[in-house]
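Field: sequence (string)
Field: structure_tokens (string)

Example rows 1 and 2, in order.
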Amino acid sequence: MVNKFRGDARLLEPGLDRLCDLTGRPVLGVLPWTAGLWPDAEDSLSLGTGPDDRLAPGPGVPDVLRVAVIRLPRISNFTDTDPLIAEPGVAVRFVTSPAEVADADLVILPGSRATVADLAWLRERGLADAVAHRAARGGPVLGICGGFQMLAREIRDDVESGAGLVPGLGLLPATAKFGPAKVLRLRQETRDGERVTGYEIHHGVVTTDGGEQFPGGCAAGAVWGTTWHGMFESDGFRRALLRQVAAAAGRSFEPGHVTFAQIRERKLDTLADLVAAHLDTAALLDLIDHGAPAGLPFIPPGSP
């Protein structure tokens, strides 16, 4: 199967025939490039993209809310911010410099595949100081999973990096300790009358010893930390948090009425329609039901 092909698929036919000759396997279809599809991504090269059908801010909204997501070298679970990208009147940027942190209304430290290494990178780039300075001024900061661990007082990591005890940013009354077992579970609670759901997937366990209640973690003033991914998909909670950010920034802002689950459903329907129109679905279903046919030639690694 060929994905994201631009142009006239008939021009590709000699190449498809050649693929079949080389591999002994048929090409089951060519999916065309479709702008604005915006599927959930695993590769960070897709960062910064978004749907083409986002609504503009409503009347009476003079500004947008500026959200800066720190683009960690080993960023993970970055789809956490997709609901913010889809929200009208919210501009989400993935940033790597202290100046981009300074002028944001909300700064997010996202998940990381290597918390201690990315924390060291924050310090090397001057981003750790920039986050601390904005927190001291009352600027909203949110840490998610690995980002929450970075905001803690200290991190004990004898598992992932083997660095032992590492000082965190000290912006939240919490400690993080890495263990060999991975925590994986769904979570749910209510905050200010809004239902919040999310999921945990991490080796670092955060223990809080103070602060205010926040779903999946704690808060200290305008600094929030959570172990939960996916919490911005809870529409009511997302809007309530954006109102807090707007109030702290002194902006006149009212979130729209985006239902993120509907956006996801529409893009999956679009993808399903593309598959139905351009792929040999009968052959795909046969592979699912019966596996690959017998007698296919073996293709050694690196063969021409």
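Row 2 begins here:
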Amino acid sequence: MFKNYFKIAWRNVYRNKLHTAINLGGLVTGFTIGIIILLVVYAQFTFDHFHENRNRIYEAYQVINKTNGQEITNQFGYAPALVYKKEAPAIEKVTRITDGGNHVGYKGKDLVIPVAMVDEDFFTMFSFPILKGNRSNPLTNISDVVLTVNAVKKIFGNEDPIGKTIMVSAGDNMQKFIVTAVVDEFTNSSINFEIITRIENRSNYTGSRNDWNNRSPNIYIELKQGATPLEAETQLRQIDKKYVPEWYEDLAKKGLKADQLGDVMATRLLPLGQVHFSTRVNGHKAISSMQIITILTVGLLIIFIACFNYININLSNIFVRSREIGVRKCMGASRWKLFIQLWSESFLVCLIAFIISLVLVRYFLHSVGGLEQLKISSEAVIGQPAFILMAFALLFFVSLVAGGYPSWLMIRLGVVETLKGKISLKRNSILRSSLIVMQFVIACIMISSTFIIYRQFKYLQDSDTGVDKDNVISVQLHNPVKGKETIEKLRSLLANDPRIISISGSDINMGRGSDHRTVKSTTDFTFNNQTIRTNVASVDYDYLKTFGVKLLEGREFSRSFGTDTSNSVVISQSVAEQFHDKNLVGKTVGADSSSRGWHIVGIFNDFHLYTLEEKLEPLTLTISNNAPLYYGFVKTASQNPVANMESVKKAMAFLEPGQEFNASFVNENINNWYQAEKMMSILFSIAAFVAIVLSCSGLLAMVLLVVQQRVKEIGVRKVLGASVQSISMLISKEFLYLVLIAILIAIPIAWLVMNQWLNSFPYRIHIQLWMFVLVAFTALVVAMITIAANTIRAAMQNPVTSLRAE
């Protein structure tokens, strides 16, 4: 029986080529977007799922309840982790994770590969796939190093790396390590690395291992079986009060209020499953849970539009199929069998569209730039049973929704009317009108969202960050330990080049370069009973000059003052405000107990060292002969950027012979901060275009249906003297009313949704009325063009032809 259904379905699909092509086009679009959405959602919500002990692993973070809101950090001193493991009964394992640099040497090769430094427990906590070598615990010894497959290819080529000795940066210096294991490629992990070794090797570890204040590492904790996060947090609270009571005393003096759990300050635990989406704890991520939900919503809305479009087009097919349905009923076909027959045609069209979409999805994921940010591996995901079930559920759902209503409507037609071919649909069908309204509501929301997201993206991209980012070249240095020396030589080489304005360097890049390296070092200390908290960056001479940052008081670092490289600092205005002292320049303040303190020589205007998706933070600049510098910055004249870059490239080739030249313009780096918003803008642009095209297709189908029903009425009106314009307006106005209703519904929804999205940004645009007026005008114009193209043609037909007997 089912074989016969599909055979007849295929014949009908093949016979009605135009309808089939239109339906296939809409469904392929809907399915392609739908499957990509499923891939995105499945991949993102299964982040970190490959770790066997993921339900017992947590990231530690600290919360301080200040008068102006919560301050949250996931960076700790070197001391807390080992103390937590030793003294908290609920904790079984702990690992710190920090940056070790990005320099690797082997057989005369100097490579730039990021290095992570962790504790011995790391590979026993996390289930990263070890391909070869020590699988039980490859970081047992201090001298052990573990590489990923990608790092092995870069360093060794086809050599077997196990047991080989390589030089790896460990903070400020290079050390020898022995390769003990190779980790296979992995995806969907919040923790990423290419080279990993023990944190005890870090150059500053000996002097900082008992330090609670100078924050750098992240801490991950694995609880014992049966232990709860609340139990562990209670124990961590007691440990913090034991080892750093002065923190609590200082906060109490400021009169800060406790939160709902009774804490003014506390160490809390974030489940590993939430780390990937945690913007509060981990700052701005490549993609947030809100963005994933937004993408899912967009995909579902496009699928619904495709379904509505299918319904609208198939409704016009009722006239063609009416006699066939009447004959089948006369021959004894039941309603159920008729429904199965008609629905099987819809399912067949959906199945063909689904197969085409799978092919297109594979093409898009491998060929369309920007989608790699979503970290989708179609090969890894499509074979998963859960994904297969979701995909077939989508296929069944769409075929049932899209083909169900027209099939149900057809089987309800009367036998006599269908055999005579005298059937008509209600002119003002609530359901058909609702479908058109819903399509245009979705389309208008898409257009509004696209416009607002794009404007927010441009706002972030074009906003003043407090630095002169134009014509500044950022150069990655291959040997950060000798970074200051390299920058000084670069100054000498380019001293007579009139295109070079100034040269400086730092351990932190401005923006996101090709290495994607972003570090944040934070410290706090007490001064006159005030807690001073600041980020710290190590820089070279002329840093403020290179970036055009204005000095408010004092001076920048100068070679004329030999003490600058020992303990002098230049602080931002927001750091100075924390001291509540108007005469800071020239004073020495205690940054930590082991040093001579910081001698403040200047105060500069605040600028954004990090993305505008984070609030502006206090910053202190230090300079030292021994501090590693990872990046050089060259301020150039604006006449010829390409020639300027080439000049710097030649100089670096002389200073670092045989090394790859990795450089970019700072304005490009800053734009890279906002790739997620750019991707969202592109996604919504595509979605808005698809939505309006599909909506207009559905509207076109309904206009054709109405014109077909009213063909004789149009002929009579023309005979009685009606003009083409009046007839066209008569037919058009009921559809324009529907579009207008859709606009009125869409605008408040779009405003609420986008305002909520914008609230996640500390720096944002403000939604204005003219934006929605523009969207409404666009929707009305597109709808009028779609309607007019057919109503005018119908109104211009010869009335004799319209009134001729059937």
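free_text_note (row 2): The CA atoms of residues 541 and 558 lie 7 Å apart.
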